[in-house]
Amino acid sequence: xAHITVDGTVLEVKEGALLIxxxxxxxxxxxxxxxxxxxxxxxxxxxxxxEIEGQKRPQIACDxxxxxxxIIRTKGxxxxxxKRSILELELINHPIDCPICDQAGECSLQNYYMDVGLYExxxxxxxxxxxxxxxxxxxxxxxxxxxxxxxxxVRFTKNITKTSELGVLSRADHSVITTFPxxxxxxxxxxxxxxxxxxxxxxxxxxxxxxxxxxxxxKEAICDHCARGxxxxxxxxxxxxxxxxxxxxxxxLNDKINGYFICDAGRLSYHKENENKxxxxxxxxxxxxxxxxxxxxxxxLKRHLGKTAFVISSNLSLEEMVRVQKLAKLYExxxxxxxxxxxxxSFGDDFLKCNDRSANARALPLLGIDTSKxxxxxxxNRVELVVLIGRSDANVIKEMGYTQNIAILCSRCEVxxxxxxxxxxxxxxxxxxxxFINLDGYxxxxxxAIQSEHGHKTLLAILAPILGDTIFTxxxxxxxxxFFYEVLKGVSFDSLKTTPKIAL
Amino acid sequence: xxxxxxxxxxxxxxxxxxxxxxxxxxKTTLSHLITNLSDTPEIKTINYPEEQPHDISERxxxxxxxxxxxxxxxxxxxxxxxxxxxxxxCIFIEAEERNDGVDEKMPKRFDIDLLECVFxxxxxxxxxxxxxxxxxxxxxxxxxxxEDFVLSKEQLLANEEKKA
Lengths: 504, 164
Ligand code: SF4
Ligand code: SF4
Ligand code: SF4
Ligand code: SF4
Ligand code: FES
Prior knowledge:
Number of strands of chain B: 5
CATH architecture of the largest domain in chain A: 3-Layer(aba) Sandwich
Oligomer: heterodimer
Bound molecules: iron/sulfur cluster, FE2/S2 (inorganic) cluster
């Protein structure tokens, strides 16, 4: 531990750590481009200057190790003048085309200019021009003119993905980021460079021109595209007279799971959340009122009392599983979660992506829910109603020789055929909250519950009246039911924020 | 909050009779009538719609128009500044890639709902490209259904600057 004085306040910090790390950790605003916690220091942008007592010139905070008793100034006319000059240098060849730049609103250059810039341009020579639209591959578009050459993107491909597709070409004014001739940016994590780029030089082809960022609302969630369960932000917006639309997923820092990054497949998986616009409740293939279909579910369950099986998806949240299990126990319904397509051996790698594509399959054995094909076969032989919950793969049970009534509760469904007794849409992943256990046993809560415009209820809301109680929220499920589980000992709803780990 | 007691007026006999006040008012009206009858051309009215107003000032905020570049193409770059500034939230923009080399971005759709617009001019002030103006001088806009009042990009581009 060391003690340093920053702008007159004494801070207790880690001796030997980088000054910028500790300053940022103490919420002290240090403008910076090239430093990034996941990529370390590079010392090329000179934006992070601070004054250190005893040193003749201002120093860069990103490459200064902390020593006991340092006295540091981050504010004041002197240091602001230095920062302004560096900003002026960065902006010499910048096209200042914020009106058409997707980064506007979350751009470091813009923010720093408003903090310490605000100067009149002194430039009298023409600016060096560059390419405005270079397709680097992997959905990443480069605008050479906006680049501040911080090399974050280069270091990402070099140090994190170890694919080294990007590099800096030419010298001085003509330096540009580029790929090697004939090669493209191509790795399953490439789109992270768009988040890393502090300015609008790298933009995502997927998000390009879709929405100005200041309209977006960010909600915390977790990705359900594979068992890693990366922490993400869901950026959504409801335009006047239109439905809520999700515009992008962004990585959310979680040291225990994904750090600062997510994979491209997970990032783009938000598209499926926007696709359920035309999804209606169906009774034998005919569109029905939602409330009527809900009643129909209850009638079906009553009619086939004792002769029903629930076949659930392993993507259901912990809370939903517990509630379904409770219902199954109450009415002696067979419960199974057999999924033939849970593993995808072409998906995983040694960084984040994993072959297990189920968001919450780890919860099944913990709750004692059976996943074997034999038990499902045995159940299918004696029941006359199968309710698929959170999934619509009716072909799986049909292939097992089942020919009687099927009801489907899911958020996306390709089956509309008349043989299916009932299709009841439920709120999809980002439209309901829920907790998930990832492949290492970390329990996370996905709090993102964007209002469903189509009146699709959450599974919890559908189950509550059937169970005859008023448990609608995850918090209530934790307090009323999950509380008793031995495997979740020491974990409470409120502690989920800290991503607790349980033994699997 | 304190309560302010206001004295009640109108309790005298003269006020309760009402007639003196009525005749007082009539006197003003009649004096205007006589002045106007004796000097008709000075009356400050026009025979609208046969006669159109001729005193619309340069700064009058009429129906919007989208301005054009020198090559006649749309100037707007779909930056959404106007839509962000608009207090009535009546500007609806959809952006698209512009591939003609003039610029990178342009509006695919640019609608203004005139029934919701409060003609405040905030959109004009907000535009960084001078792409939207309210100098068309159009002060009256007629439609048969609500949809007629939603001006499309093409309609807005067709509006011309009012000639002096
Ligand atoms: S493209 Fe972005 S991240 Fe890469 S060097 Fe330029 S400014 Fe930095
Ligand atoms: S690694 Fe898995 S959980 Fe993480 S973003 Fe990719 S698909 Fe989603
Ligand atoms: S004049 Fe005012 S209300 Fe009308 S479109 Fe412009 S900003 Fe909106
Ligand atoms: S009219 Fe102006 S402010 Fe509005 S989107 Fe177009 S360029 Fe931007
Ligand atoms: S952040 Fe310190 S030099 Fe770039």
